[in-house]
């Protein structure tokens, strides 16, 4: 099997839909029968919970791996989708990250661990926390591709430029050829709206980076979050679930 495609869901602004995207894109790859590993790197554990993983379902999580308590594979949990595994996160990740952040170079740890399992998965999807703390940099440094989540009412020119600066930092400081797979617009209804937004914010050059598929605002997302299941399991024909499936196909086509 070829090396896996490691995609980190990034975006500086909080609440643009990174965790929703990580869960539903990973589920969509799994529905396309691609072996997928979802890694939660946010101590909030949203991606973990929204996949239906409860605290009783696992003994070890990403914090156990990063603090060298267990092997990487010992913290991988199977989900009810046959092609989807997850590495959960919980609040203890916050404490582990504080310790790790004291030593430069530790932000490369996740990337190093991933080398051991790269052959087992077609896709590794990493949910990153907002802002540029240790965990976000670790999540981005582990990736070969970034998927940048944007939402029209929330994202700004500054956020986008900040992200580009961060990509440049990772490329130069960590010598990692990180690339942007594309910009994903969440909670929007038309492509015109997206292009208008980019023009308005003097980001016209970024138009070529926008994915053809965008995610509509969909009450079924909120319902699936309440039920702690991926949107496709709540209603596979729902607007956002369909959009995520089409996005997974678009990304698969683009990366292969
Ligand atoms: N397409 C959508 N339709 C409806 N609601 C959505 C959609 N996307 C996101 N939401 C809502 O927005 C909230 C925030 O989304 P999410 O947690 O994925 O953002 P985030 O970028 O991961 O935030 P954080 O920076 O805190 O990690 C969700 O709890 C959900 O209620
Ligand atoms: Mg999140």
Tell me about this structure.
- The chain is of the alpha/beta class and 256 residues long.
- The chain has a single domain, classed as 3-Layer(aba) Sandwich (Rossmann fold).
- The protein contains eleven helices and seven strands.
- The protein has helices spanning 18-31, 46-50, 62-66, 92-100, 109-114, 134-141, 157-173, 191-200, 219-227, 231-234, 239-255; strands spanning 5-10, 36-40, 77-78, 84-87, 123-127, 145-151, 179-186.
- The protein has a seven-stranded mixed sheet with strand order 3-4-2-5-1-6-7, with helices on both faces.
- Helix 1 (18-31) crosses helix 11 (239-255).
- The protein is globular and about 50 Å long.
- Adenosine-5'-triphosphate (ATP) is lined by residues 14-20, 42, 46, 129-130, 186-187, 215, 217-218, 221-222, 225, 240.
Question: What's this model, at a glance?
Answer:
This protein is of the alpha/beta class and 256 residues long. It has eleven helices and seven strands. α1 packs across α11.
């Amino acid at each position: 099997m070829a090396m896996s495609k490691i995609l980190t869901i990034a975006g500086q602004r909080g609440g643009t839909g990174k965790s929703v995207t990580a869960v539903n894109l990973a589920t969509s790859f799994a529905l396309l029968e691609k072996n997928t590993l979802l890694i939660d790197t946010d101590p909030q554990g949203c991606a973990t919970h929204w996949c239906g993983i409860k605290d009783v379902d696992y003994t070890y999580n990403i914090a156990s791996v990063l603090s060298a308590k267990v092997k990487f594979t010992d913290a991988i949990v199977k989900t009810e989708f046959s092609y989807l595994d997850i590495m959960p996160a919980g609040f203890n990740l916050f404490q582990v990250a504080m310790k790790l952040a004291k030593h430069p170079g530790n932000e490369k740890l996740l990337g190093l661990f991933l080398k051991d399992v790269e052959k087992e998965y077609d896709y590794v999807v990493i949910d990153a926390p907002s802002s540029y703390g240790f965990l976000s940099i670790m999540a981005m440094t582990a990736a070969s591709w970034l998927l940048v989540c944007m939402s029209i009412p929330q994202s700004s020119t500054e956020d986008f430029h900040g992200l580009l600066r961060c990509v440049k930092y990772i490329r130069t400081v960590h010598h990692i050829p990180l690339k942007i797979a594309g910009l994903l617009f969440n909670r929007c209804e038309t492509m015109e709206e997206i292009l208008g937004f980019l023009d308005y914010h003097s980001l016209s050059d970024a138009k070529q980076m926008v994915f053809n598929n965008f995610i509509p605002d969909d009450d079924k997302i909120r319902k699936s979050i309440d039920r702690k299941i991926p949107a496709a399991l709540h209603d596979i024909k729902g607007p956002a679930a369909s959009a995520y499936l089409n996005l997974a196909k678009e990304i698969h086509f683009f990366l292969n």
